[in-house]
Design brief:
Distance between the termini: 88 Å
Shape: flat
Largest sheet: 4 strands, antiparallel
Strand content: 5-15%
Order of helices and strands: HHHEEEHHEH
Strand order of the largest sheet: 2-1-3-4
Structural class: alpha+beta
Number of strands: 4
Helix content: over 70%
Radius of gyration: 27 Å
Number of helices: 6
């Protein structure tokens, strides 16, 4: 290789290194923002999972209410049919109409299964009606947990790292005065000790 070829190769290598360095600098500037976004997503995921569980439990309770009170079954089915007809009339799309009808029936089930909710602050984070809490778990009200999660999420925007689920639960127990703790009713404590 001639001297000109070597010089040209070094110039190309230098340009490549400058490009890589520029991209690395750009990425390093974005990393804290990306990390904060990911930490905030952890809270969003936990909240979403808890809300899904609350809705599932409400549906199950709603079905139980429908079994006990048959007159509510007609009302629920009527709401589902009304949603189906209304969805078809407004959209003209059968799939959307079916989705609307099922959504209306699901909303009725959740309404009949509504409760004052409690969440166990442990690895499983159970969501149960407040009157069904048992001894041996660390229970908080649904509302207070949502307030504490909101504060936790605000901390992630400011750059706080949360860690895994156990670390988040520990953080909620330790540093946030917002969760209101619950104790099982005396009859529930007696049931759990048997």
């Amino acid at each position: 290789m001639s001297t000109d070829d070597w010089a040209k190769a070094f110039d190309e290598l230098r340009e490549g290194l400058v490009t890589v360095e520029r991209k690395a600098n750009d990425l390093s500037v974005q990393l804290p923002s990306l990390r904060n976004t990911l930490e905030s997503l952890k809270v969003d995921i936990i909240r979403s999972k808890l809300e899904q569980e609350r809705r599932r439990v409400a549906r199950v309770r709603g079905v139980t209410v429908l079994k006990q009170h048959k007159r509510y079954l007609g009302l629920s089915l009527g709401l589902g049919i009304a949603g189906l007809v209304l969805g078809r009339a407004l959209s003209g799309d059968n799939d959307l109409a079916l989705s609307t009808g099922l959504g209306a029936f699901d909303a009725a089930l959740q309404h009949f299964g509504k409760s004052v909710w409690a969440v166990s602050l442990d690895r499983t984070m159970l969501v149960v009606p407040r009157d069904q809490i048992t001894a041996g778990r660390f229970w908080v009200t649904w509302e207070s947990l949502n307030e504490a999660m909101e504060k936790l999420q605000e901390g992630t925007v400011a750059g706080k790292r949360l860690g895994d689920l156990e670390a988040i639960v520990s953080e909620l127990k330790r540093d946030h005065p917002l969760p209101r703790y619950l104790l099982p009713s005396p009859s529930r404590r007696a049931d759990s000790q048997e």
